[in-house]
């Protein structure tokens, strides 16, 4: 039986936060299946932390070269993923995000004809390899006769991306991602469907997130427990199982050996951005976070996750930047207290952030 205390250390190793990092940003993302992308600068940091060179620029280059894209592949939530994975993930998972759309559109005064007119406008605006900022694309939609006020603009872009027309690809000089046409930008998509796609989804999740449960997979991907079990059944021959306090968890068979080679590092201090997969990749976070302190990382349960301090595989506080330029420094807030040595380690970790 594996202790809950060991789970966090194994996850740090599985996610390539501890031990050797990925050779490329695309490899790091592919390992996890997808990386939470609600906060774009934070997502770039999350990916860079999992690479050997730990450089933000490498992540930006992967986006500019079309190796990585950002879109809404599952749960209606922004993620960064390998470009060739987006088509099959949208096909497998996108329809669930569209459930209940009529009610929200009713609240916003949107119609299907509005959405399809928006699709026509953005397709024409981006034809031939065009790239546009969000504000410019919304202005084009508005000029084409579809109102984008309030939340309407966001929902129109979300819908057109969710249904396979748009994605976010390269960055501009300011670091903002630009919208592109999915089929123009991703020229060689993988094509998976049905059980094969479910099996691939499950395999990638458990390799990059394990030890994790089938319930974690269902929550992460936004699929039914039945589908999660079906995907696990296909992926199961390539996974190892662990009993954690009587609950079956699955992982990459190579993860325990990887942890053995980097245990001291894994037991150290990590500063992770808000929305990092170490936190959001699981439905049940009790192995790495005392439920008593859950509200500290999501104040008011508002869906906005604060950056976290991880020590010995557990989340022990939050952190953030204060000041600017040469005076910028990290301020960390412990759930209880930080011993002097741990407080010093937090500053050392901050100095090494990408």
Please describe what this structure looks like:
This protein has 354 residues and is an alpha+beta fold. The chain is 47% helix and 17% strand. The protein is built from 17 helices and eleven strands. The chain has helices spanning 4-14, 25-32, 40-49, 56-64, 86-97, 101-108, 112-126, 134-143, 152-162, 182-185, 194-209, 214-221, 225-235, 255-266, 277-280, 294-297, 340-351; strands at 35-36, 68-74, 77-82, 166-171, 177-181, 240-244, 247-251, 269-272, 308-311, 314-322, 329-334. A four-stranded antiparallel β-sheet has the order 8-9-10-11. Strands 1-3-2 form a three-stranded antiparallel β-sheet. Strands 4-5 form a two-stranded antiparallel ribbon. Strand 9 (308-311) and strand 10 form a beta hairpin. The radius of gyration is 21 Å and the shape is globular.
Largest sheet: 4 strands, antiparallel
State the low-pLDDT regions, or none: none
Give the percentage of residues in beta strands: 15-25%
Q: In percent, how helical is the residue content?
A: 40-55%
Report the count of strand segments.
Answer: 11
- Find the structural class using helix and strand composition: alpha+beta
Distance between the termini: 37 Å
Count, helices: 17
Helix/strand order, N-terminal first: HHEHHEEHHHHHEEHHHHEEHEHHEEEH
Strand order, main sheet: write it out: 8-9-10-11
Rg: 21 Å
Regarding quaternary structure, what we see is: single chain
Mean model confidence by pLDDT: 95
Shape: globular
């Amino acid at each position: 039986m594996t202790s809950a205390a060991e789970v966090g250390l194994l996850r740090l190793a599985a996610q390539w936060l501890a031990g050797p990092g990925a050779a490329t940003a695309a490899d790091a993302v592919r390992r996890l299946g997808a990386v939470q992308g609600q906060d774009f600068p934070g997502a770039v940091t999350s990916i860079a932390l999992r690479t050997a060179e730990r450089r933000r620029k490498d992540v930006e280059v992967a986006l500019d070269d079309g190796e990585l894209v950002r879109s809404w592949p599952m749960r209606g939530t922004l993620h960064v993923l390998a470009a060739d994975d987006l088509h099959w993930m949208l096909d497998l998972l996108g329809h669930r995000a569209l459930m209940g759309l009529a009610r929200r559109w009713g609240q916003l005064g949107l119609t299907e004809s509005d959405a399809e007119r928006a699709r026509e406008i953005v397709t024409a605006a981006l034809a031939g390899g065009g790239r546009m900022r969000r504000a410019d694309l919304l202005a084009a939609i508005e000029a084409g006769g579809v109102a984008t006020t309030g939340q309407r603009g966001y929902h129109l872009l979300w819908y057109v991306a969710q249904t396979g027309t748009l994605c976010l690809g390269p960055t501009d000089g300011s670091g903002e991602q630009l919208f592109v046409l999915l089929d123009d930008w991703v020229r060689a998509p993988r094509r998976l469907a049905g059980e094969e796609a479910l099996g691939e989804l499950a395999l990638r999740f458990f390799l990059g997130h394990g030890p994790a449960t089938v319930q974690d997979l269902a929550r992460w991907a936004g699929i039914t427990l039945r589908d999660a079990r079906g995907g696990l059944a296909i992926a199961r021959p390539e996974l190892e199982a662990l009993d954690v306090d009587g609950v079956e968890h699955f992982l990459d068979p190579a993860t325990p050996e990887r942890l053995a080679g980097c245990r001291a590092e894994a037991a150290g201090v990590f500063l992770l951005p808000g929305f990092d997969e170490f936190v959001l990749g699981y439905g049940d976070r009790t192995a790495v976070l005392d439920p008593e302190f859950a509200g500290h990382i999501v104040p008011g349960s508002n869906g906005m996750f604060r950056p976290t301090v991880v020590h010995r595989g557990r989340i022990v506080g939050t952190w953030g930047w204060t000041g600017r330029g040469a005076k910028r420094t990290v301020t960390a807030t412990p759930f209880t207290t930080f011993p002097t040595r741990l407080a010093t380690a937090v500053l050392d970790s901050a100095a090494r952030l990408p």
